[in-house]
TrEMBL record:
Residues 1-18 form the signal peptide. This is PKD domain-containing protein. It comes from Flavobacterium ginsengiterrae. It holds the Pfam family K319L-like_PKD. It comes from the Bacteria.
Length: 413
């Protein structure tokens, strides 16, 4: 009996030992994150591809690494740190990525391959679309307008001046707030560390040498067609932050209101050169008011297709150091052009990574489809009365990457 009891106790002890040993053995899957990711993709060049991965929780950290780059053979470069990756390529080939996911002690990894094929269409590197043309009142606001034109008719004329070219006709945007919205026939790719597109404006040759009445700078806004509806939506715009934005004399939320003279209001003139010294009334939110004087040889300053008699514009105002070109006169002016980040800047090339949202946060756009240019200068100019140095002018834009791929010459600004 005692022998049987002893055998029973030894068996029970052995069972307990084996059971404990089994429980103490590490579970290989305990610290593993299961990552779900499509293994293969195919996409054309100049097209944004959304690569989506499974959600590993709120504390997860994601790292996308390009392990194969057929273009420059650079590998193991980090290309993203969010759950999903937006990828766009300029050149065809096979691109390979690894997604690493960590959450505390847990880790997971998954690979995917993107086969990029050449674009089926011959994209144009220049502007091909127009969505709006809204010059503020100014000396050349009606330069392209013809009697009987609707706004749609005018926009067709405007597009014809800058369509598919780098040497377009400079379009006058009028006074402060005047704008134009245009688009490409493809997505301009955002390449990290490189300029992505060039904006063409007025004649700013020898920009370091003072010149009477040079073109004024224009703010640049960009939009990526995220919902693929083919048009810029209001929630898609981001502002390009240039060299002047952080300067102390830059004014945020600057507002100008323009008021058209009524049909029965008399002209105010006492000169052979001017038809009306009080042609368009203007006031801003800095406590200043003034009139735009209309020369006899110039068209109406207030856009003739507008039905409303008063219009206001609000935004960022740049100070460009206006000075008279000659003492004692008020018709010729010199100014200091901004270094970069604007239409009519010294450097006309734009990096999409300069784009920020309305709170100043980096936009991190994969590319852009649309551009909006806005006149951002308002200065007292005597009888020149443009409230900007002959107004901001815009003559189109070019995709620098497509120009390089197609081996096309970049036109000088």
């Amino acid at each position: 009996m005692k022998k049987n009891v002893t055998h029973f106790l030894l068996f029970a002890f052995a069972f307990a030992f084996v059971g404990c040993s089994s429980d103490d053995k590490p579970d290989e899957n305990a610290n593993k994150i299961e990552v779900t990711l499509q293994e293969k993709y195919e996409t054309p060049t100049f097209t944004v591809l959304d690569i989506t991965a499974s959600d590993a929780g709120t504390n997860a950290v994601y790292e996308w690494i390009m392990t194969k780059n057929p273009v420059d053979q650079v590998t193991d470069s980090i290309v993203g740190n969010t759950k999903d990756l937006r990828f766009t390529a300029i050149y065809a080939g096979s691109y390979e990525f690894t997604l690493n996911v960590t959450s505390g002690e847990k880790k997971g990894t998954k690979n995917t391959t993107v086969t990029v094929i050449n674009e089926t269409a011959d994209y144009n590197p220049y502007i091909t679309k127009i969505f709006d043309f809204d010059p503020a009142p100014g000396m050349f606001a009606n330069d392209l307008f013809k009697d009987g034109n609707s706004k749609e008719d005018l926009m067709k004329t405007v597009l014809g001046r800058i369509d598919k070219t780098s040497v377009g006709y400079p379009l006058d945007l009028g006074g402060f707030g005047g704008s134009i919205i245009v688009g490409f026939d493809h997505t301009v790719v955002n390449i990290p560390g490189a300029s992505d597109f060039r904006v063409y404006g007025g004649d700013i040759s020898n920009p370091t040498v003072p010149k009477a009445n040079p073109s004024a700078p224009g703010l640049i806004f960009v939009a990526y067609d995220k919902n693929k509806n083919g048009k810029p939506d209001e929630d898609e715009w981001y502002e390009i932050i240039g060299s002047q934005h952080a300067k102390s004399n830059t004014v945020k939320n600057f507002k100008v209101t323009y008021r058209k003279k009524g049909a029965n209001e008399p002209l105010v003139t006492a000169s052979a050169l001017f038809l009306d010294y009080e042609h368009v009334y203007c006031e801003n939110n800095q406590g200043e008011s003034f009139y735009l004087a209309r020369p006899r040889a110039k068209k109406e300053f207030y856009p003739l297709w507008k039905t409303q008699t008063e219009v206001s514009y609000e935004g960022t105002r740049l100070d460009v150091d206006f000075e008279t070109a000659r003492p004692g006169q008020t018709t010729l002016w010199n100014s200091t052009l901004p270094e970069w980040g604007y239409v009519n800047a010294v450097n006309p090339d734009i990096d999409i990574d300069w784009a920020v949202d309305k709170n100043g946060n980096k936009a991190n756009l994969p590319g852009i489809d649309f551009i909006k240019v806005v006149n951002c200068v308002s200065e007292p100019m005597g009888l020149c009365q443009q409230q900007s140095s002959m107004a901001a002018t815009f003559a189109g834009a070019g995709d620098l990457h497509l120009l390089k791929k197609y081996n096309l010459k970049k036109a000088k600004n």
